[in-house]
Amino acid sequence: MSIRIANPSSSDPEAEQITVLFVCLGNICRSPLAEGLFRRSVQTAGLAERFFIDSSGTSPWHVGQAPDPGSIAVAAKHGIDISMQRARNLREDDGERFHWVVCLDASNKRVVGARIEPKELFLLRDVDPLRSGTGVPDPYGGSSQAFDECFEIIERCMEPLLERVLQVKKLSV
Ligand code: 4NP
Hints:
By secondary structure, the chain is of the alpha/beta class.
């Protein structure tokens, strides 16, 4: 059995990992859900080893903390465990480390765009099949219904997001 370790800086496109970073404000509510849901999508597609997925916040307020209990609960309700994630702040080298940087709202995108220059920077809801170009409402401090709505929006964006990434990479599921 051979083990291949993917190297994002390799010139061999076969060995290159597809790097995706989700960004919100605190990295405890929305982007941890996006990270967990996208991880599930690539796993279901049998592509887990091709991807490096992470999330971060534009603020340092919750660095080191687990996701919000509301996000952990709604993810668990759908069979996804995000409890091991820990919040981190956006790093100055995230633009080099990640090809795809996907923001959860327009304010996050503005802050990210002022701090780093990734190859691809866009809003998650640009690929929302029901409504595009707007942010995912922040459920922080909200009811379980707010977290349900947040989950629902992010979930319906996952398939189109994976398709968009794979199309550019000329891969298929
Ligand atoms: P998130 O939600 O950006 O989806 O993680 C928030 C988390 C924390 C705060 C605001 C939004 N906060 O003000 O601490």
